[in-house]
Write a sequence for this structure.
C-alpha cells in the first residue's frame, strides 16, 4: 500500500517510478534525469564506498586499541564497536559495488558545484576555530558571518559585518544577562562586561525610583 | 489515579502563569525558527537547547513541547509560500500547497494547514493521553531482552525501511552507533574510539552532531550548490478565512489524516513520511475534484497530509514518553534534552514525576490552541521572516550553531567536531544518505548495548534469551519481516510483470 502511494505521487508529478520521493520537486512538475545508459563509472560514488571501507579500517584499528576490561563483563567493551565496524565494512563493500555498477548519486538532480562558495564557507569555519579563543566570540563570529554571507554571493560586506557584529553582541549580552552564562572572553567582551558593571548601579537606582513612585501612588 | 486525574494534575501545572508564558515563548520561537527554510523541528530544538540552561525541568520541557509543535506549523507556512520544505514530512504539503498559492489561494492553503494542524494536533494529543498509561503497563512486562529487541526493530525500520536505500540507511545507522560509542564505556570504564584525544573521553554530544549534520551540513550544501534562480515568496492575496466550500472539503481530510498519522507515528517505526504520503494518495482518491491535484492545487491535498504530519508528531511522543524510545531525529534530540536534566523518560518517570510528564502533555493542548491563534492572524509576520536575505539568514544560522556548541563548553574541540560533522552532513546530502539514522543510532546504540548486557547478565550469558522470551522473539521477527517483506514483494511484483510481458509477447 505504501509503495503504491509513493509511486502515485511520483507518477503524478511525472517522475520515474522507483526514483526518490524527493524528486517530486521542481518548478513545473518534475526534474527527472533517469538512469542514462551512457553514464560512465560513477567515480565520486566509488570514492564514497571506498571512504566507508577506509573509515571501517581506521575504526577497527581503534577497537583493537581498547584495553581488555579489568572488571568481569559478560559483554566486553569491544563487542558493540566490532558490530558497528563490521556493519560499516560490509556496507562499504556493497556501496562500492553499487557505485561500480552505475552509482546512485545522480539519481537526483544536484546543482553544479561552486568551488568559490565552498572556499569562503570553509575559510570562515577554519578562521572561527583558530580565532575564537584569541579574539573572542563576538569578533570571531562577525568574521564567520561575513565569510558565510560571502559564500552566498553577498557583495555588501559592510552590511554583513554590521549585522553579524550586532547579532553576536546581542547573543552574548543576552546569554550573560538572562541565562547568567558567559560565552568566553575577548576584546569586545571586556567592554561589554565593563558596561554591565557600570550600568548595574544606575539600573538599580532607576528601579528603586520606580518603586518609590509606585509606593507614593 | 486514572488518566483523567493525571491530566487534570497536568493542567494544574501547565496553567500556572509562568508555565503559560514558557509555552507561549516556545510556540512563538518555534514558529519563527521553523519558518526559516531548511530548519526543521529537530534543528530548531537543537539550536534552542541552550535556552533551557538554568530553567527548571518542567518549564524547559514545556518550552520544548511548544517549540516542537511550533516548528511543525512554521514549516508548513514555508512549504506553501516558498516550496522549499524544511524536512521530508512537509514535502507533500508543498506539493499542493504551493500550487494553491500560485493560483492565488495562499490564504486558504495556510488556513486549512493551520486549522488541520490544530485538529490533528489535538486528536494526536488525546491519543497520547489515552495511550500513555496502557503503553506504560505494557512496558512493565519488558525486561532488558525485550528492550533490546525493540531497539533492533527501531533500528531496522528507521534505517532500512524508511528512506530510499536500505544500504545507505544502514551505513548511516552504523556510523551513528560508532559515534555513540565514543568515550568511556559505562560498564567497564574503557575508552573507546577516542584516538587519544582527551576531549573525546566524555563522548560526543547529540546536540553537536545534530547541529553539525543539519545546520552546518545543509548550509555548506546550499553554499556550494547554489540554485540558479532564487525561489520567490508568494504573496498572500486572498482571505485567510476559508469559504464554506473550503470547510466542506477540508474537515474529512483533517480527520482521516489524523487517524492515519497518529498510529503510524506511535509505532516504533515512527516517522511522518509514510502517513503524509498515504494521506495524499487517499485524498486524491476520495476527492470530488481530482483534476485540481497537480494543476491549480487541491485543498484536500494540503488538509490531509498536514493533519497526518502533525498527528504523527504527537504519536512519536508515545514511545518517547512511555518507553524512553526515540523514533525520529526530533525525538532523539528531545531525549537528550531530558537527559541533560538527568531525567530518563520511560515507565518509571511516569510514576516518579507525573507532574513533569502530564504537565508536558497538558501544555501540548495549550500550545496547540496558542498556535492556532498565533498563526492565522500573524501570518504576515512569518512572511516577513521568510524574506530575510539568504546570506544573512545562513550567516546567522552559523553564528547560532557556534553558540549552541562552543557557547556551552567553551572548547574549540567542539567547534572542530561541529565542522567535521558539517562536512559529513554535506557529503550525506550530496550523496543522498539519510541523516536521521545517524542521530537514532547515536542515541539508541549505547542504550541497546546496555540492555544487551543486562539481558545476558540475567540469562547467565545465554544468547537464546532473545528468542525464547515470547515478546522479544516477536519483536525480532517483526524486524526481520520489516527488512525482508519489501524485498520479497519487489521480487514477486517483478516476476508478475515479467509474466505479463511474456504473455503479451507470445499472444502477439
Amino acid at each position: 500500500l505504501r509503495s503504491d502511494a509513493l509511486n502515485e505521487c511520483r507518477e503524478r508529478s511525472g517522475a520515474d517510478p522507483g526514483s526518490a520521493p524527493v524528486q517530486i520537486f521542481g518548478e513545473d512538475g518534475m526534474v527527472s534525469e533517469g538512469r542514462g545508459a551512457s553514464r560512465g563509472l560513477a567515480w565520486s560514488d566509488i570514492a564514497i564506498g571506498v571512504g566507508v571501507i577506509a573509515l571501517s579500517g581506521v575504526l577497527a584499528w581503534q577497537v583493537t586499541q581498547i584495553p581488555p576490561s579489568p572488571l568481569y563483563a559478560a559483554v566486553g567493551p569491544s563487542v558493540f564497536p566490532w558490530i558497528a565496524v563490521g556493519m560499516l565494512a560490509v556496507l562499504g563493500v556493497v556501496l562500492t559495488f553499487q557505485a561500480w555498477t552505475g552509482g546512485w548519486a545522480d539519481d537526483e538532480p544536484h546543482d553544479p558545484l561552486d568551488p568559490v562558495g565552498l572556499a569562503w564557507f570553509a575559510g570562515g569555519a577554519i578562521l572561527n576555530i583558530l580565532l575564537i579563543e584569541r579574539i573572542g566570540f563576538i569578533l570571531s563570529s562577525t568574521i564567520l558571518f561575513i565569510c558565510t554571507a560571502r559564500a552566498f554571493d553577498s557583495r555588501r560586506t559592510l552590511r554583513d559585518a554590521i549585522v553579524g557584529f550586532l547579532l553576536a553582541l546581542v547573543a552574548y549580552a543576552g546569554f550573560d544577562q538572562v541565562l547568567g552564562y558567559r560565552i568566553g572572553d575577548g576584546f569586545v567582551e571586556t567592554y561589554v562586561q565593563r558596561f554591565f558593571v557600570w550600568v548595574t548601579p544606575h539600573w538599580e537606582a532607576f528601579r528603586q525610583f520606580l518603586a518609590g513612585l509606585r509606593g507614593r501612588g | 489515579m486514572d488518566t483523567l486525574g493525571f491530566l487534570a494534575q497536568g493542567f494544574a501545572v501547565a496553567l500556572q502563569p509562568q508555565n503559560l508564558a514558557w509555552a507561549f515563548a516556545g510556540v512563538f520561537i518555534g514558529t519563527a525558527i521553523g519558518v526559516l527554510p531548511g530548519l526543521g523541528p529537530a534543528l530548531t530544538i537543537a539550536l534552542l537547547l541552550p535556552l533551557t540552561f538554568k530553567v527548571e525541568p518542567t518549564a524547559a520541557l514545556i518550552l520544548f513541547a511548544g517549540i516542537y509543535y511550533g516548528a511543525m506549523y512554521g514549516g508548513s507556512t514555508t512549504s506553501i509560500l516558498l516550496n522549499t520544505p524544511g524536512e521530508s514530512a512537509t514535502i507533500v504539503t508543498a506539493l499542493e500547497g504551493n500550487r494553491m498559492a500560485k493560483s492565488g489561494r495562499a490564504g486558504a492553503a495556510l488556513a486549512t494547514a493551520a486549522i488541520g494542524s490544530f485538529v490533528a494536533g489535538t486528536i494526536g494529543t488525546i491519543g497520547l493521553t489515552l495511550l500513555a498509561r496502557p503503553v506504560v503497563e505494557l512496558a512493565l512486562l519488558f525486561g532488558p531482552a525485550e528492550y533490546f529487541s525493540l531497539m533492533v526493530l527501531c533500528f531496522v525500520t528507521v534505517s532500512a525501511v524508511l528512506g530510499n536505500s536500505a544500504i545507505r540507511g544502514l551505513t548511516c545507522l552504523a556510523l551513528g552507533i560508532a559515534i555513540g560509542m565514543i568515550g568511556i564505556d559505562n560498564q567497564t570504564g574503557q575508552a573507546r574510539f577516542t584516538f587519544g584525544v582527551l576531549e573525546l573521553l566524555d563522548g560526543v554530544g547529540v546536540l553537536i552532531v545534530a547541529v553539525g549534520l543539519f545546520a552546518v551540513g545543509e548550509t555548506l550544501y546550499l553554499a556550494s550548490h547554489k540554485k540558479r534562480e532564487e525561489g520567490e515568496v508568494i504573496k498572500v492575496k486572498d482571505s485567510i478565512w476559508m469559504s464554506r466550500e473550503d470547510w466542506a472539503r477540508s474537515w474529512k481530510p483533517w480527520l482521516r489524516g489524523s487517524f492515519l498519522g497518529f498510529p503510524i507515528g506511535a509505532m516504533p517505526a515512527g516517522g511522518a513520511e509514510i502517513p503524509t504520503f498515504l494521506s495524499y494518495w487517499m485524498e486524491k482518491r476520495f476527492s470530488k475534484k481530482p483534476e485540481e491535484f497537480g494543476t491549480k492545487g487541491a485543498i484536500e491535498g494540503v488538509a490531509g497530509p498536514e493533519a497526518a504530519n502533525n498527528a504523527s508528531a504527537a504519536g512519536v511522543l508515545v514511545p518517547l514518553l512511555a518507553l524512553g524510545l526515540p523514533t525520529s531525529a526530533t525525538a532523539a534530540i528531545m531525549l537528550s534534552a531530558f537527559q541533560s536534566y538527568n531525567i530518563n523518560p520511560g515507565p518509571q518517570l511516569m510514576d516518579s514525576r507525573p507532574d513533569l510528564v502530564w504537565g508536558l502533555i497538558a501544555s501540548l493542548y495549550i500550545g496547540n490552541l496558542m498556535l492556532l491563534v498565533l498563526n492565522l492572524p500573524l501570518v504576515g509576520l512569518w512572511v516577513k521572516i521568510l524574506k530575510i536575505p539568504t546570506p544573512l539568514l545562513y550567516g546567522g544560522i552559523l553564528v547560532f550553531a557556534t553558540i549552541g556548541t562552543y557557547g556551552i563548553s567553551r572548547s574549540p574541540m567542539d567547534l572542530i567536531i561541529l565542522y567535521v560533522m558539517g562536512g559529513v552532513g554535506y557529503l550525506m546530502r550530496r550523496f543522498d544518505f539519510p541523516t536521521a539514522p545517524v542521530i537514532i543510532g547515536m542515541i539508541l546504540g549505547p542504550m541497546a548495548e546496555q540492555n544487551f548486557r543486562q539481558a545476558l547478565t540475567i540469562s547467565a550469558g545465554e544468547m537464546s534469551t532473545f528468542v525464547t522470551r515470547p515478546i522479544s522473539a516477536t519483536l525480532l521477527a517483526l524486524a526481520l519481516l520489516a527488512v525482508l517483506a519489501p524485498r520479497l514483494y519487489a521480487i514477486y511484483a517483478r516476476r508478475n510483470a515479467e509474466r505479463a510481458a511474456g504473455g503479451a509477447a507470445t499472444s502477439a
